[in-house]
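Researcher: Go.
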Amino acid sequence: MAGLSKHDLTEYEALTVLNPQIEDSQVASFIEKMKKVAADNGAKHIQFINLGLKKIAWERDGHNKGIYLEHKFAADNTFVKEYERILKIDESVLLRQTHRIRKGVNPDSVTELEDQLKPKAAPAPSAPTFQPRNDA
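Model: Structure:
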């Protein structure tokens, strides 16, 4: 196996939970801001996925729900520190976590995927079906 080049990047996934009371336009602005931060710092944006409003395991800043966003990008570790710093000072962010997916990513192989900015609608609950008992 060949060694890592000093130009290779690491792929990361950042999960961010935003205040549930912000507007859709503010969510879109947040996403654009973080994509710009990535571009301005030499990171390669891969994809943003809006996972929608979900319950948080514990209450945070008086909220028990939040808007979950997943951001995949390739960067060096110095960018991750800056990314986390920006998330920490943003008042709309309730929670954040960034973790490494894989090392040794060739920058030329990074492909940007289409962002999923609208959360997928939850499937409608199906009507209960009546199953007669067969006690015979």
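Model: The domain at 9-109 is CATH 3.30.70.60 (Alpha-Beta Plaits).
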